[in-house]
Amino acid sequence: MNSAHQPSTNNQQPKLKVCGLTKLDQIQELISLDVDFMGFIFYEKSSRYALDHLSLKEIAEVPHFKKVGVFVNENLEKIIEISGKAGLNFIQLHGDETSEYIAELTKQLNQEIKIIKVIRIGNQTSDELQKTINHQPSTVNYLLFDTDSKAFGGTGQTFDWNILNNIDIPIPYFLSGGISLENVHQLSTINHQPTVLDINSKFETEPGIKDLKRIKIFKNLISNI
Ligand SMILES: O=C(O)c1ccccc1N[C@@H]1O[C@H](COP(=O)(O)O)[C@@H](O)[C@H]1O
Fold first, then answer.
1. Under 8 Å between Cβ of 16 and 217
2. pLDDT tens digits, one per residue of 13-63
3. Nearest CA to ligand 1 atom 15
4. What is the rounded CA–CA span in Å between residue 146 and residue 158?
5. How is the chain split into domains, by residue range?
6. Can you tell me the mean pLDDT for 206-224?
7. ipTM
8. Ligand 1 centroid distance, CA of 155 (Å)
9. Ranges for the N-(5'phosphoribosyl) anthranilate isomerase (PRAI) domain (predicted)?
10. Which ligand 1 atom sits nearest the alpha carbon of residue 118?
11. How far apart are CA 86 and CA 93, in angstroms?
């Protein structure tokens, strides 16, 4: 990754990703709402594991061109197989995937599929975080910042967004981790705005069941940012 890249403020209106989808009728409604990215979790330990509710064929037939598959330390063959059968457009690597792993995945993956690498933020310093960012391979298309946890993600916990003001983020990024109707106004404290806001557990009535009313309100709120 080119660390000499100048930071940009990205004043564009953020796009929206809704993650942890498990129900076809809800997916249809979200498509009608023009949600930009649809997230499916392919991590068996998640309470939002897509394949407990949907088949790969059903996901492939979802008429949307920004379908994101979320994987945690998964073996490469499985990612290649699922991404092909489910017609994924983005792979979100939410575990501890190394540069070597990402390089190998990029070689084997359909070249049209984009890679989102998650960086989980815990108690690292901004210098440590910057190093992690700078060491990502150039084949990573987007970063995603989420709160660190033993469960890897989907906890509804936020991290201190201030740390993003102390680092250079050289490529577009997704912001996630407990984003809600209650805290979205604090986005204005971030200098370099995220390209995509990734919402999940704070917009659910139970894991995998989305609260569409709240998502509509959120979408309206961010379209006025
Ligand atoms: O949602 C999950 O169950 C999950 C499990 C393992 C890895 C990632 C997971 N979801 C991702 O977590 C973030 C933040 O979610 P939340 O808003 O804090 O609930 C989001 O990127 C999901 O893609």
1. no
2. 999 999 999 999 999 999 999 999 999 999 999 999 999 999 999 999 999
3. 154
4. 8
5. 15-223
6. 96
7. 0.98
8. 7
9. 17-218
10. 21
11. 16
> Mind listing the pLDDT tens digit for each residue in 83-98?
999 999 999 999 999 9
| Å from CA of 154 to ligand 1 middle | 3
Q: Distance, CA 222 to ligand 1 centroid (Å)?
A: 20
**pTM, full prediction:** 0.95
Helices (runs of H) and strands (runs of E) counted in the chain: 6, 10
Is residue 143 within a helix (H) or strand (E), and if so which, with residue range? strand 142-147
**Cα-to-chain-centroid distance, residue 98:** 18
What is the 48 CA–ligand 1 centroid distance (Å)? Answer: 9
For residue 95, the ligand 1 atom closest to its alpha carbon is: 7
Measure the CA dihedral 166/103/172/111, to 10°: 180
Phi, psi of 33, deg, nearest 5: -80, -5
Angle subtended at Cα 109 by Cα 136 and Cα 101, rounded to the nearest 5 degrees:
40
Pocket of ligand 1 (CB under 6 A): 19-20, 39, 41, 43, 46-48, 70, 72, 94, 146, 151-156, 176-179, 198-202
Q: If you take atom 1 of ligand 1, which residue's CA is the nearest one?
A: 154
Cβ 15 vs Cβ 195: under 8 Å: yes
| 94/92 Cα distance (integer angstroms) | 6
Does domain 15-223 fall under CATH 3.20.20.70? My reply is yes
Distance CA 38, CA 90 (A): 10
How high is the pLDDT of residue 10? 64
